[in-house]
Amino acid sequence: MRLFLLAFFSGVLLINAQENGEDQFGGWYMYFGMNRISEKLSVHSEAQFRYYETSGNFNQLLLRTGLNYHINPNAIATGGYAFIKTDGSFEEPENGRDSREHRIFQQFILKNKVWEFLFEHRYRLEQRFLDFGDFTDTQHRARYRIQVTLPLTDVFFLNFYDELFINLQDDLFGQNRLYGALGIHLTPNSSVQLGYLRNQFTSAVFDRLQIGFFYNPDLRGIFKKKAKS
Hints:
Blueprint: H1 2-20, E1 25-36, E2 41-53, E3 56-72, E4 75-86, E5 99-114, E6 117-131, E7 136-151, E8 156-167, E9 173-187, E10 190-200, E11 205-215, H2 220-228
Parallel strand pairs: 1-11
Antiparallel strand pairs: 1-2, 2-3, 3-4, 4-5, 5-6, 6-7, 7-8, 8-9, 9-10, 10-11
């Protein structure tokens, strides 16, 4: 009887893992940009393509933008908007419909340095307007991320972060993301990171390869020329 129950529950767990893709090593391919337009202002641009598997099987598209206000070199306040399209199932059901989300966010970043370690604290509030097809929902969420960057040489660096998601309704814990990566400076204003993300929810843990491209052009010269003309 014990063997039967063990086999039964093992089968249930295996089926659930197959349904949500928990047993797969997925991939997130990302672009981040901070486009400086004045001494105090910059525009955040971001696109993320997330997959249940490294080579495909669509999970989520995330597009985000915002306006940054640089209080000083170590403090940035941001307000912005994001659009998210999500396939919530590992195997898309027939006639399945992806959910859509319109998101407004407010963000505050603080930076400091301890020896060679560069710390960044990011505090974010989100108002989420979700459309699941049959019904809609509005949710609110808070996020805190602590990130540590360690330069190895002028070209290579290590980057780590841990981010906690707190629901402001229903269950308090939303998810936790633990990340580590090797980064390479391509030019003074661009870099790439190759890393691993452990994304933990209440009932599932997902392993994700992450490849991120970061490009932070200084456009102040262009805007000054336009203002003079």
